[in-house]
Each structure stands twice: as structure tokens, then as C-alpha cells.
Design goal:
Layout lengths: L22 E6 L34 E7 L8 H9 L6 E7 L7 H8 L5 E5 L7 H4 L2 H12 L3 E4 L6 H8 L7 E3 L14 H14 L4 E5 L2 H4 L3 H19 L4 E3 L15 H11 L5 H13 L5
């Protein structure tokens, strides 16, 4: 569950080294198009191949644990995806965020089926390409409340122009922990100083004002048109998000392989280093693992 209140930073003497513990990556994908249908991969040939846990970029061994997030398989294969991931040889897997359509008539039966898999700690309804009326519907708000009543968290994957609609929806489900994936997919191609960037900042602020909403510092390489833009705007984007949500509601995610070398050419270590540089050293323990553990209800190792 998402924690309330600020995490107090320990006193660190000037010039003292602050060592990070092994990192928990709160957002990683694996997929198996050879056996499960992923229609979107037909348009991304560079990513249309089986991706196993052994393929994941662990940033030179710094990342030791992962949260798997559903990879937008055909919804009819959602349970099969969870069963496949649950059976993988993946010692570092700590939690699964499964697919769930919150406006589907069969939501209750689907949540019943997910309850058979103990690693499932949350669900995600991909919304970035959903019709506008889905987020605004009473059925979506009802489904979001039902997710929280089941003891699950919700990953929200939307684009920057959907943040206001997301804020309106999640405000109606205060008992459901929600995490905004990929910093709300900000307008890195347009830049942060124009009207698009202002709209993103305002939407981010509305979400940060809701105490049950957290943010994943993830996925920015995939939103940038080039690695150079990622390097130029990524740190500022992360600082804005961290300033809005704080250490107790911010978590690192690598977004492998979409934001890794197969998808963008950017190593996960680069994303991790951007996050470490944008976040005060005293907050590294929270952002690089502690916050995700609380949010998804994971035991401390």
C-alpha cells in the first residue's frame, strides 16, 4: 500500500559517501510472442522476439529484483500471461502487475482468477490509447474502487494530455493505491517549456495532490525522440516529478526492453544514473526500492 507522509532523511555528514542497496526495478517486461499474442508487436519489429528474464539489462548487477508489468498481450491471454510469468525461472521476481480491463463486465471473475497467483500485487488497464470516455466513465471509477477492495494496486499508463482525466477518475477511488507509469509520458519531443509541458506539469501536480497516488520514474527513454533529447530533458523531468511526489511516493523503473537497448538504444544503467542524479542521496533507498516495496506490499529482504 502507498505510504502517507514524508520519509525523513537521515543526517549525512558533508562529504560522506551514501551507498545504495541493490535496486528493485519496479517496471520490467518480458514477453513470448512465439506462444502468446501481442498484436502491438507487429508494428515494432525490433521488439518482436521472445524476451526472457535472462535477457533483462540489470545495469551491471546493480538491479537484483523486479516487478513484472503486463505487456499488453491480447486481453484474452491475460491469465495465460500471468501463469507463464509465474512459472518462469526468475529468482529476482518479486511481484506481478497483471492485465485487467476495469470496464469489462467480467472484471469480478477476472480478479477471482488472478487471486490464484500469489505474486499478483496489482493490475494495469492500458489507457494510453483508450477512448476518452473510458477514463471519464462511472464504470472505470467503480472498477478502480473494486481493485482496491481486493487489496490490489493499480498501474496507470496514460499520456500527458490524459493526466487531468486520470486525476478526476482516481480521486473517486481513494482506497486504491495508484502509481503513474513513466512520469505520465511527458511531451519530451515538444519540450517542457511550452504549453504542452505546462499542461503536463499541471496534471502531474493534480495527481501528486492525491495522497494515494505515486509515480514511477521510468520510461523516459521511450518518450524521447532521440537519446540526446533523453539526456537533455530526462534529468529535469525527473526532478519535477520527484519534487511533486517526494521520496515516499516515487519509485525507479527500468521499463525493459521498451526503454532499454532493444527499444531505444539507451542502457538501463543510463536511466538509473539519471534517477540517482535527480534524487537527493538520502532518498535513494526509498526511490530505488523502499517505496516500491511499500506500494506493492513486498517484504524487506
Amino acid at each position: 500500500m502507498a505510504a502517507e507522509g514524508a520519509v525523513s532523511a537521515p543526517d549525512v555528514p558533508p562529504g560522506a559517501a551514501v551507498l545504495d542497496p541493490p535496486v528493485l526495478d519496479a517496471h520490467a517486461h518480458v514477453w513470448r510472442p512465439s506462444a502468446l499474442p501481442y498484436p502491438w508487436l507487429d508494428d515494432v519489429p525490433a521488439l518482436r522476439r521472445d524476451v526472457a528474464p535472462s535477457d533483462i539489462d540489470d545495469a551491471g548487477g546493480r538491479i537484483r529484483e523486479w516487478v513484472f508489468v503486463e505487456a499488453d498481450a491480447d486481453p484474452r491471454a491475460a491469465i495465460d500471461e500471468v501463469a507463464w510469468v509465474s512459472a518462469l525461472d526468475w529468482p529476482g521476481l518479486r511481484a506481478i502487475v497483471a492485465h485487467a480491463d476495469l470496464v469489462d463486465d467480467a472484471l469480478e471473475r477476472h480478479l477471482d482468477a488472478l487471486a490464484a497467483f500469489p505474486l499478483v500485487r496489482g493490475v494495469r488497464h492500458p489507457l494510453q490509447d483508450a477512448p476518452a470516455d473510458v477514463l471519464a466513465s462511472a464504470r472505470f471509477a467503480s472498477g478502480l474502487r473494486r481493485v482496491g477492495e481486493r487489496g490490489l494496486a493499480f498501474d496507470a499508463c496514460v499520456r500527458w494530455w490524459q493526466l487531468d482525466a486520470l486525476a478526476d477518475a482516481v480521486a473517486q477511488a481513494p482506497g486504491t493505491p495508484v502509481v503513474l507509469d513513466h512520469v505520465g509520458k511527458p511531451p519530451l519531443a515538444e519540450g517542457l517549456d511550452g504549453p504542452e509541458g505546462e499542461r503536463w506539469r499541471e496534471g502531474l501536480g493534480r495527481l501528486a495532490a492525491l495522497p494515494h497516488v505515486s509515480v514511477k520514474l521510468s520510461g523516459l527513454a521511450a518518450e524521447a525522440p532521440t537519446p540526446a533529447v533523453f539526456d537533455a530533458l530526462g534529468p529535469e523531468t525527473l526532478r519535477i516529478a520527484f519534487a511533486a511526489f517526494g521520496a515516499d511516493r516515487s519509485m525507479f523503473g527500468g521499463d525493459w526492453p521498451v526503454s532499454g537497448p532493444p527499444g531505444t538504444g539507451v542502457p538501463i544503467a543510463a536511466a538509473l544514473d539519471h534517477v540517482r542524479a535527480a534524487v537527493p542521496a538520502q532518498a535513494h533507498g526509498a526511490v530505488l526500492g523502499g517505496t516500491a516495496r511499500r506500494f506493492y506490499g513486498l517484504a524487506t529482504p
